[in-house]
Amino acid sequence: MNVFRASFAAVFAAIISFSASSATADDMMASRLGAILGQERQALSVVPDSRLNQLTSLPPASERGVATQSGVIYDREFLASQPAVDGDQEWECFAEALYFEARGETVRGMFAVGEVIMNRVDSNAYPDTLCGVINQGTGRKYACQFTYTCDGRAEVIGEPRSWERVGKVAHILMEGAPRALTGGATHYHTKAVSPSWAQRYPRTAAIGSHYFYRQTVRTASN
User: Fold this and answer.
1) Alpha-carbon span 197 to 188, nearest angstrom
2) pTM above 0.70, yes or no
3) How do the pLDDT tens digits run along the chain, 222 residues long?
4) Torsion angle, CA of 14/19/20/22, rounded to 10 degrees?
5) For 53, how many CA atoms within 13 A lie in the half-sphere containing its CB?
6) Largest CA distance in the chain
7) 71: left (phi over 0), alpha (psi -120 to 50) or beta
8) Distance between CA 206 and CA 211 in Å, rounded?
9) What angle do CA 147, 120, 122 make, to 5 degrees?
10) Backbone angles phi, psi at 187, to 5 degrees
11) Contact at 8 Å (CB) between 172 and 73?
């Protein structure tokens, strides 16, 4: 019986010793990995945002062989053949934004601006409704996301034919049409200006009078 107890004690001691060694090895490995990751984070912290975005972003869709400028929905005659539409408040917000931001564009240009709005709705970085995205920041100085919502002028629809056209575009996009023009863009500006944020985000398309960009999101480890 004493021999059995002695053997059991020896085995138990060996298990404890092995566990301690294993724990020590795990601690050493975790420490080394932490040091390596810390060095990587430190190195990445000195890389300018614009350069990091270039390194971590996909090329524009057109450069990846993705169809970006085709499809019958971008044809003016096709759009004209569609029946006039009406809708709820979300549709009205969307159509209004397209009217004031893109009614002078080609059909493709109107769809491109619409894609940006839809992409923002899908992004966690923005409100999750069309009206929320379009009116984000309205009423706060320099905070509005779409110029027409804070230019101090009343939003008057004075061109019925243009309103009908943008209403159709809004409806088609809300019904789930492919967004294949802008490569996932979340921003745009006219070619006549050069906002500071345009230096930070990769440009994805140039359509009509607008340049389009995709906002990249830095993770906590970057």
Assistant:
1) 10
2) no
3) 444 444 444 444 444 444 445 446 566 665 665 666 566 566 656 656 555 455 444 454 444 443 444 467 899 999 999 999 999 999 999 999 999 999 999 999 999 999 999 999 999 999 999 999 999 977 666 668 898 888 777 789 999 999 999 999 999 999 999 999 999 999 999 999 999 999 999 999 999 999 999 998 654 444
4) 120
5) 17
6) 102
7) left
8) 5
9) 160
10) -140, 155
11) yes
Q: Chain-centre distance of CA 14, in angstroms?
A: 56
Q: How far is CA 141 from the centre of its chain?
A: 24
Q: Is the distance from CB of 185 to CB of 197 less than 8 angstroms?
A: no
Cβ atoms of 201 and 213 within 8 Å: the answer is: yes
Helix crossing, 107-122 with 160-174: angle to 10°? 50
Kindly calculate the radius of gyration of the chain based on its CA atoms and give it in whole angstroms: 28
- The C-alpha atoms of residue 198 and residue 202 are separated, in whole angstroms, by 8
Which are the contacts of 165, defined by CB distance < 8 A and separation ≥ 6?
A: 79, 80, 103, 107, 110
8 Å CB contact between 222 and 107: no
Q: Dig out the tokens for 14 from the structure.
A: 């060996």
